[in-house]
Every structure is written in C-alpha cells, then in structure tokens.
Amino acid sequence: MTVYHPQSGYFEFRQGPIHANIVLADELNRAAPRTQSALLEAMEERKVTVDGVTRSLPEPFLLFATQNPLEYEGTYRLPEAQMDRFLMRLSLGYPAPEQEVEMLGRFSDPQAMGIKPILLPEEIITLQRHVKMVLVDDRIKRYMVQVADTSRRHPRILLGISPRGLSHG
Fold it and tell me: Least enclosed by CB within 10 Å: which of 57, 92, 108, 142?
C-alpha cells in the first residue's frame, strides 16, 4: 500500500504480506472475486501493481491456497480458468482420531512446530507462561476428537468440525 506523509508531502510504498517468498492464502474461496483475481495474478505474473506502479515479487515466490467446501455458505467459486494456475489440487480429508489427538499435542508447543517468533522475546515468554498454565489431559483431547469425529459422520450435519477448528477451540 501507499502511505501519505502530510508533513513532507511524500508518498511511501509499504510492502504487504504478498511480498514474501511463501504465502498462504487461507480459505481463498472466502475472499471476494476481486481479491481472488489479484492473488492469482500475483501467482501467474510474479508481480503486483499498486497505485499504477508494478513491482516484482521476491524470488522464489510460492503461493499455497486452501479452500472451504463450495457448499459452505460465504464462499465464491474459483473459475476453472483460475484453478489451472495451481500446480496441484489435493483433498486431504480428515485425519484418523488418534492422529488428531497427536496433532493437538503438537500444536500446544509452538517450539516443537519450528515456528520462528514474530513477537518481542518478552511477549513470547509471557504468552508461554499462560499456555503452560493450561493442562489438557489426553482423555479430554480424545473426547474433543470424538465430538469432532461424530460431527463429521452425523447425517444431519453437512460440514463437521475440522481439525483446525478443533485445535483452536
């Protein structure tokens, strides 16, 4: 985006999240068609245009995208002409209940996932203290997975609880 500085009368370009080597567009089909088009154009051309100025994206540039099932409310279908810009299309389904219990354990320790901090060290330490105060017994994790798994199999539920939804609950 371009930011205007009224004191100097100067416009400054500030790179956004698309200016990264690896970008995850989560739930791409929830974005408005114009946003979808802009992301897919960045994938194809490796460039973005802001205020009439075209800028190259960093090399390498890789965009991953997820989408919700099309039957889910609030989604916009990606045109077939845009779908062909993706190298591959995978449908992963849900993990087995025991794998999901394991996932819950892994996601509770950000260090084990290899995530690099984006906060100040003091902020991370404070958050880690809060996280460590929460104890979730394996029996509770198994119960949570059982509820999620049941929601996926229930004949009156169109879209069950996702693993990500379960881990954020």
Answer: 92
